[in-house]
Specification:
- By secondary structure, the protein is α+β, with helices and mostly antiparallel strands.
- It has helices at 10-21, 31-37, 53-63, 115-119, 143-149, 158-164, 167-179, 185-193, 203-214, 219-225, 227-230, 237-240, 254-263, 275-283, 288-291, 305-319, 324-336, 345-355, 357-372, 381-397, 411-416, 423-437, 445-455, and strands at 26-29, 46-49, 66-71, 76-80, 88-93, 95-97, 109-111, 130-131, 137-138, 151-152, 182-183, 293-294, 300-301.
- Among the domains are: 1-149, Beta Polymerase, domain 2, CATH 3.30.460; 156-233, Hydrophobic Seed Protein; 404-455, Serum Albumin, Chain A, Domain 1, CATH 1.10.246.
- It has 23 helices and 13 strands.
- α10 packs antiparallel against α13 and α18 packs across α20 (381-397).
- The protein starts with 9 loop residues before the first helix and ends with a helix.
Length: 456
């Protein structure tokens, strides 16, 4: 096994050295060690130490290093060891946790001088290895073997780990989605058995893990496996699994179609999907089972599922305390995902004006992924969608504008024509914009002034 000394940044080495030289044990621990073993560059380096918070502070005071007592109760001190005080290291004392009445935080934290005791209360084996200042890894829970085997395994008894902190369930799913690892059988069983405890976790904490799960490259396989867990936060997802759509346009059940759409959302250069698009893909057909009916010929229909799905998405995103920006965009994407226009210059321009270019570009990504997840018969809309995209690109290239405020005329110009202040100005601007979008009027100042004069 290679040493990782050269991979530890100087600001972290300094924190380790200060504690070691003062007679305390200190190690890099957690996700940074996991990432190093997997050949990735860690973003954050956390340190654990035998020194108590007061002892950590004393060491830093003596060395003239700034610190922030960020979590003294739980043993954490943040030190600023970088040259410009922007590089921070969280240093947490070895500890053993008491009971977890709120299923999230220990009621009592006892500090210990034993790194092994500290490690055995951590969540997953891949997160429980530790690294000394010389770059040597110690692994007492089997994390190295589990990384080699591609497994997410709870440390010790999974039921105990998840009753201590139910958010670990979502964290484990997210780790699997990010790494492509499988969840070890007993660990998955414990996740399912304790899934109801997620009701005790604040929505905003769940949303952080869910975001990272659905935007990760291996999300679909984990979602498929974890429906018995995810149904606690998205009850409707259980109905989608195995639901036959009974139509020639689909050759998958609702869940499998949904996962194919999610797979169709492209990854960026960092290997992540756009958050709003990923959530919209997950939720776009969530209302199909609820709106399903069979006609006299035995064909299935899900009329109204976009609107009903948008209502479900609205409730779901609010329950998890999503930001207004993400909430609004996802709800609109779900509502519009099945809305297709005749691909003509005027209709495309009007759609761009009504929804905005940014939303339009996301919508067509979702629609393309949705179409490609249909049966061959259901993919005939792709030609129209591609023509819509071509027209939109052409409009952009020609410098088309999509808002009244971007016209080469302003409200002041219309007032200067003698139009009284008030609703008349806005109506004239709206009329000018409509005629511009319809192709009857160029966005040229002279032409707009002339037409405004006629309308005033």
């Amino acid at each position: 096994m290679p040493g990782y000394k050269d991979k530890i940044p100087d600001y972290c080495k300094k924190a380790l050295a200060l504690l070691n030289d003062a007679g305390y044990e200190a190690y890099v621990v957690g996700g940074a060690v996991r990432d190093l073993v997997m050949g990735k560059d860690p973003h954050d380096f956390d340190v654990t130490t035998s020194a108590t918070p007061d002892e950590v502070i004393a060491v830093m005071d003596k060395a003239g290093v700034r610190y922030i007592p960020t979590g003294i109760k739980h043993g954490t001190v943040t030190v600023l060891t970088g040259s410009d005080n922007t590089e921070q290291v969280e240093i947490t004392t070895f500890r053993v946790d008491g009971s977890y009445t709120d299923m999230r935080h220990p009621d009592k934290v006892d500090f210990t001088r034993s790194i092994d005791e500290d490690v055995r209360r951590r969540d997953f084996t891949v997160n429980s290895m530790y690294l000394d200042r010389e770059g040597n890894i110690t692994d007492i829970t089997g994390g190295l073997d589990d990384i080699s085997s591609g497994l997410i395994r709870a440390v010790g008894d999974g039921n105990r780990r998840f009753t201590e902190d139910a958010l670990r369930i979502m964290r484990g799913l997210r780790l699997a989605a990010e790494t492509g690892f499988k969840i070890e059988q007993d660990t998955m069983a414990a996740m399912v058995d304790n899934a109801s405890l997620l009701d005790n976790i604040a929505g905003e904490r769940i949303s952080v893990e869910l975001d990272r799960l659905v935007t990760a490259p291996y999300a679909t396989g984990i979602i498929r496996q974890s429906v018995p867990v995810l149904k606690v936060i998205i009850p409707e997802i259980e109905d989608c699994q195995g639901f036959d759509q009974m139509t020639r346009y689909h050759d998958r059940d609702v869940l499998e179609h949904t996962l194919a759409v999610l797979d169709g959302i492209p990854l960026d250069e960092n290997g992540k999907r756009d958050t709003s698009l990923a959530l919209a893909a997950l939720l776009h057909d969530i209302a199909k089972p609820k709106t399903f009916f069979v006609d006299s010929r035995g064909a299935g229909h899900m009329k109204g599922h976009p609107a009903e799905g948008a209502a479900i998405a609205d409730r779901f995103l609010k329950s998890l305390k999503y930001s207004k920006a993400v909430h609004d965009e996802v709800v609109r994407l779900v509502a519009y995902h099945d809305y297709y226009i005749i691909p003509a210059r005027t209709t495309v321009h009007r759609l761009l004006s009504n929804c905005g270019p940014g939303f339009f570009r996301k919508l067509i990504v979702l629609q393309r992924a949705d179409i490609m997840a249909h049966s061959k018969l259901g993919q005939d809309r792709l030609v129209k969608l591609e023509e819509t995209i071509r027209i939109a690109d052409e409009l952009d290239e020609r410098g088309a504008v999509y808002k009244v405020s971007d016209l080469e005329i302003s409200g002041k110009d219309i007032l200067d024509l003698g139009v009284p202040a008030g609703t008349g100005v806005g109506k004239i601007l709206d009329r000018l914009f409509d005629e511009y979008v319809d192709g009857r009027l160029p966005n040229v100042r002279e032409a707009l002034i002339k037409r405004a004069t006629e309308l005033s």
